[in-house]
Amino acid sequence: MSTVAYVILLGFGDIQEGGAFLFSLFLSLYLVTLISNLLLILAVQKTSHLQTPMYFFLCHLSCADVGSISSIVPQLLWEVLAGGVTISFSACMVQLYVVGALLTVECFLLGVMSYDRYLAICWPLRYSVLMDSRVCVKLAVASWIGGFLFLGVMLALLASLTFCGPHIINHFFCDFFPLVKLSCTDTTIVEKAPFASSFLSLSPFFWTLLSYGFILSSILRISSSTGRHRAFSTCSSHLIVVSIFYGTLVVVYMTPPSETTFSLNKIFSLLYTVLTPVLNPLVYSLRNKNVQIALIKGTYFIVQEVTKAK
């Protein structure tokens, strides 16, 4: 139950002098994220030799990235210009659900991608059978359903609280802990829920660690240094993104909430909500020459279509 009709998101309104710089930075990152992820999806769809399980899951990851950053950055840009923004309480809850669900979907997809790399390196002869198109679709659908169901449980916990103020959230989007602080009832159990649920939401991370344990063992058994380097290069991109994404998530959601951590977590939240979606297509794709060629062709295709439309 809520008697709070609206909330005020402060965002980065306390940084008045750097408002123009932040606006330009966030807008640039947003545009780069949209263009690079959409180009990646187009490149995979238009290039036959990129239609592999890894790039199939990467396209789903791009969709989740575009959805999550689009749920945050347009509002963030307005916060930077206005020094804060006022939204309805129901809209705040919807944003929490959508952003949280898409981030959880990303957790599951990263775990699935680590499993894909494990099969490709440790079971190369059976890879095409173990990771056929039907398995890929089932794993992708399970990731999406699991993400939205998981956040549904967290939203149900919030709905059990009574919200009566204050109306101010010192964050740039409606996150779990800042929203809980608006409650005027006992939140002890609810505040502990993210720590308990983190073991479930971080299960893809533990699965990733287990997969890479087997991968590393398999790579070390390769006698050729060239073969070891080639095998490891197929995993390095995934490891970089996983390290950044989970590193910031652990800092934000596994740290007990306090006034100091709220301010610090606002900075760390930028890494997994804004920076990671930019890095994903760049780290995964631009290191691959085939993808670079496909992206150039995709860009040329878009330019041609735009020219024809004119």
From TrEMBL:
Q: What's a Pfam family this protein contains?
A: 7tm_4
Record field: transmembrane: 20-43, 55-74, 94-115, 136-163, 205-223, 235-255, 267-286
- GO molecular function term, any single one: G protein-coupled receptor activity
* Bilayer disposition of the protein: Multi-pass membrane protein
- Where does the record place the G-protein coupled receptors family 1 profile domain? 36-284
Please provide the record's keywords in A-Z order. Cell membrane, Disulfide bond, G-protein coupled receptor, Glycoprotein, Membrane, Olfaction, Receptor, Sensory transduction, Transducer, Transmembrane, Transmembrane helix
Keyword Nucleus set for record: no
Origin superkingdom: Eukaryota
- Any one cellular-component term (Gene Ontology): plasma membrane
Query: Where does this chain mainly localize?
Result: membrane
UniProt cross-references to PROSITE patterns, sorted A to Z: G_PROTEIN_RECEP_F1_1 (PS00237), G_PROTEIN_RECEP_F1_2 (PS50262)
Q: Where does this one sit in the cell?
A: Cell membrane
Membership in a protein family: Belongs to the G-protein coupled receptor 1 family.
Functionally, this protein is described as follows: Putative odorant or sperm cell receptor.
Q: What is this protein called?
A: Olfactory receptor
Origin species = Gulo gulo
